[in-house]
Specification:
The chain has three helices and 29 strands. The chain has 485 residues and is mainly beta. It has one domain: Neuraminidase (6 Propeller). Strands 3, 4, 5, 6 and 7 form a five-stranded antiparallel beta sheet that branches. Strand 4 and strand 5 form a beta hairpin. The chain is globular and about 70 Å long.
Length: 485
C-alpha cells in the first residue's frame, strides 16, 4: 500500500481545471531595473549580511563572492574560492560555489559570530573513482566557515577556512546548495540527490547501471545526507568531527542505525534555491523550490520531519510506485507545481527547472507584499528564456500561481538563476545569457550575468483611465491613429 499524500491543497487540481488562475492579474506589472550588467559571469545567489550596511553579496558560480555597495559592484570580491573548486565541466556544469549565509550575529561588535559567514562549494573528490560501477565519487560538497578581516570589512581572510561538513557526490549534477539561517538561528542546508537521473543510478541507494525500478534512492535513505534539508548549529560541537552541533530537537535525533541526525526534512531531488520568509513581518516559513525529473517542477513549504516524496513521486504525480521500503510517514505535496513543455499532464506548461525565490517584505511596493516571487530557469537549453512567476496565498496553505506581467515581455530571454532580498525586504533577481558557468558573450567577450531590482510599474491614475474611456477621447484617439498610418 502506497503512503498517502499530506498537503493542505493540491494546486494541481485547480490548475488542471484552469490553465492559469483567475487571479493572474492580481499581481502588478513589474520592471527589471538593472543594477549590474556585464560584470558578473554566473550569478547563482544573492544575500545580505543583516548588519545594517544593506550591502548585497552575489555568488559567482566559479568562486567569487562579489560585494555590491550603493548599487555598485566593488572591484575586489569578498572572497575568491576558485582555486578550491572542482575543475569546470565543459559546456554545462552544476558544480561550483553555490551557497552563502552570514552568521546571525554578523556585524555585532563583541559577538562570537561578528565576523563569520558560511559557504557551500564543490571541491575535488578526496578519493574514490568517478567511474566506479557501484559507488562512483565525482566530487565532494563542502560547507565551510570564513571570517572577514574586520568589522564592516569588504574582504575576507582566505586562510580562515574551517570546514564544518563534507560529503561525497556520485555525479556532477543535483548539488542544490542553499545555505540560510532560520528564525531559530540554526543553519539550514539543501542537498541534491547526488545527480544523474531518477535517483537510481550507481551511487544511489538501490540504484545501478540499468536504473532498476523500486530502489529506495538517496533522497529517501536516511543514512545519506543527499536529497535532504539539513539543520545544524554552527556554534555547537556535538556533531561528527566536532565542528558543528546537532540541535536536540532535530526530528531524527536518537534514531540510530546510521541515520543522520542532521536531517531536518527529506525526499527532495534538487532543491535549487530556497529562502526563509524572514523579512519585516515575515512568517519564518521555509520555501524550497525542487527541480523535477522530466515533467513536474514544484515549490514546497518545508517542515520538520517532512518527507517530500522523491523518488516515489515527482510533485504530486507518481514516479516509481515500487520504491521499497514504503515510508512510514505521509508524503507532503507541493504548494505549487507546473509542467515541462509537452508533458501533457494537465498542469500549465512553463519550463524545465524551477528557480527558488523570495517572499517580498519590502515597503516600496505594497502591491507585492507577501507574494512569493520565483521563476522557471528556461524553457530550453539552447536559448535562454526564463519565466518570472508568482505565488499569492489566498488561504492558509492555499496558493495561486501566476505568470508575472513583466515590462518588455515574459519569458525574459535570459536564464533566471536566483533571487535575493536586501535588508529592507526589497527583491532582486540574478540572470545570465550563456549556459556554461564561465562562458562569456561570444559577440562581445563580456560576462552575461546581471543583477536586477524588481520594481512595480506605476499604473495610470484612475482619472486618466476614465478620461481615456470617454467617447470623445476614444474618437480622437481613433482618428489620430488613422492619420498616423
Amino acid at each position: 500500500m502506497r503512503p498517502t499524500m499530506k498537503t493542505s491543497v493540491i494546486v494541481a487540481l485547480t490548475l488542471a481545471l484552469h490553465p492559469w488562475p483567475s487571479s493572474q492579474a492580481a499581481l502588478p506589472t513589474i520592471r527589471l531595473q538593472p543594477l549590474s550588467q556585464h560584470e558578473i559571469v554566473a550569478p547563482v545567489g544573492i544575500a545580505n549580511a543583516g548588519d545594517g550596511s544593506n550591502r548585497l553579496f552575489v555568488i559567482d558560480q566559479r568562486g567569487k563572492i562579489h560585494v555590491m555597495e550603493n548599487g555598485q559592484v566593488l572591484p575586489t570580491p569578498l572572497l575568491d574560492l576558485e582555486s578550491r573548486l572542482v575543475p569546470e565541466r565543459p559546456g554545462f556544469d552544476e558544480r561550483g560555489l553555490l551557497g552563502l549565509a552570514f552568521h546571525p550575529q554578523f556585524g555585532q561588535a563583541g559577538a562570537a559570530g561578528a565576523n563569520k559567514f558560511y559557504v557551500y562549494y564543490s571541491a575535488p573528490r578526496p578519493g574514490g573513482d568517478p567511474d566506479d560501477p557501484v559507488q562512483p565519487v565525482n566530487h565532494q560538497s563542502i560547507i565551510a566557515e570564513y571570517s572577514v578581516t574586520g568589522l564592516g570589512a569588504n574582504v575576507a581572510d582566505p586562510n580562515s577556512e574551517r570546514i564544518l561538513l563534507s560529503f561525497e557526490e556520485p555525479q556532477f549534477n543535483h548539488n542544490a546548495g542553499f545555505l540560510g539561517f532560520g528564525p531559530d538561528n540554526l543553519l539550514y542546508v539543501t542537498t541534491g540527490d547526488g545527480g544523474g537521473g531518477g535517483d537510481n543510478e550507481p551511487g544511489h541507494t538501490g540504484g545501478g547501471a540499468n536504473n532498476p525500478s523500486g530502489g529506495l534512492g538517496n533522497a529517501q535513505d536516511l543514512t545519506r545526507l543527499l536529497g535532504k534539508t539539513l539543520r545544524i548549529d554552527v556554534d555547537g560541537n556535538n556533531g561528527p568531527g566536532g565542528q558543528y552541533g546537532i540541535p536536540i530537537d532535530n526530528p531524527l535525533v536518537g534514531a540510530g542505525g546510521g541515520v543522520h541526525e542532521e536531517i531536518y526534512a527529506y525526499g527532495l531531488r534538487n532543491p535549487w534555491r530556497a529562502s526563509f520568509d524572514n523579512g519585516p513581518g515575515g512568517t519564518g516559513r521555509l520555501f524550497v523550490a525542487d527541480v523535477g525529473q522530466g515533467d513536474v517542477e514544484e515549490v514546497n513549504l518545508v517542515e520538520k520531519g517532512g518527507n517530500y516524496g522523491w523518488r516515489i513521486q515527482e510533485g504530486s504525480f507518481e514516479f516509481d510506485p515500487n520504491v521499497t521500503p514504503t515510508p512510514d510517514v505521509p508524503l507532503i505535496g507541493p504548494i505549487a507545481q507546473y509542467a515541462h513543455p509537452g508533458s501533457a499532464n494537465g498542469l500549465p506548461e512553463v519550463g524545465l527547472a524551477v528557480t527558488g525565490g523570495v517572499v517580498y517584505r519590502g515597503s516600496d511596493f505594497p502591491q507585492l507584499q507577501c507574494a512569493y516571487l520565483f521563476a522557471d530557469w528556461s524553457n530550453g537549453f539552447s536559448q535562454p528564456n526564463g519565466t518570472l512567476l508568482g505565488l499569492e496565498e489566498i488561504g492558509i496553505g492555499q496558493f495561486d500561481l501566476s505568470v508575472l506581467n513583466v515590462e518588455g515581455g515574459n519569458p525574459i530571454g535570459q536564464f533566471i538563476q536566483a533571487f535575493g532580498l536586501d535588508e529592507s525586504g526589497e527583491a532582486y533577481v540574478a540572470t545570465k545569457g550563456t549556459l556554461a558557468p564561465s562562458a562569456l558573450d561570444p559577440a562581445t567577450g563580456l560576462p552575461t550575468g546581471a543583477i536586477y531590482r524588481i520594481v512595480v510599474v506605476p499604473e495610470p491614475a484612475a482619472w486618466l483611465l476614465l478620461l481615456l474611456s470617454l467617447p470623445a477621447v476614444a474618437k480622437w484617439r481613433s482618428t489620430t491613429l488613422d492619420r498616423s498610418t
